[in-house]
Design a protein that fits this description.
alpha/beta, 5 strands, 5-stranded parallel beta sheet, binds ligand C2R, globular, 6 helices
Length: 167
């Protein structure tokens, strides 16, 4: 449903193979009711599409871009180079180097072109979705309330299960 409204968050990834990780970001956006779009865009394999996507993101109304990539993960940095919309980078866990390559490719941006880099893998993608919602929430009361409700619920769940041996 939220995918049909004008998207405020763009979730892009270098390959279809990144989806099982990036799905965690999309799950959070759906939970918070943030309109979003999802697309495979690669700096390496579809450089012209990447350029066009980043170039048009602002005029299309996107407020945040979440970019996930693995290995030589240039996508988040290259998108950030072409737009002033905040870009959140998710290092996808690679098989060869467990995602350390992805992390270092994304996090070590030169001064002047920031990428907000999250943790490697599923938790990083989840947090990217939450962070994007928190950015949108600055100007959207419904999303703000949804994020607050999520936090309250999360705290409650921990407090209600203090004994780690009991489910
Ligand atoms: N890092 C990038 C970029 C990019 O940075 O533009 N495009 C694809 N990839 C990554 O290559 C990995 C393997 O991709 P395949 O599974 O398609 O071979 C993926 O994790 C993808 O993000």
């Amino acid at each position: 449903m939220t995918e049909q409204q004008k998207p405020l968050v763009g979730v892009i990834m270098g390959s279809k193979s990144d989806w099982p990780t990036m799905k965690h970001a999309v799950d959070m956006l759906e939970q918070f009711g943030v309109p979003h779009e999802v697309k495979v865009v690669s700096a390496h394999r579809t450089p012209d599409l990447m350029f066009e996507y980043a170039d048009q993101a602002e005029e299309r109304g996107l407020q945040v871009i979440i970019a996930g990539a693995g290995g030589a993960a240039h996508l988040p940095g290259m998108v950030a180079a072409k737009t002033t919309i905040p870009v959140l980078g998710v290092p996808v866990q690679s098989r060869a180097l467990s995602g350390k390559d992805s992390l270092l490719s994304i996090v070590q941006m030169p001064g002047g072109i920031p990428v907000g880099t999250l943790a490697i893998g599923d938790a990083g993608a989840k947090n990217a979705g939450i962070l994007a919602a928190q950015i949108v929430a600055n100007q959207d009361a419904a999303v703000r309330e949804a994020v607050k409700a999520f936090r309250t619920q999360q705290t409650q769940t921990v407090l209600e299960h203090p004994d780690p041996r009991v489910d």
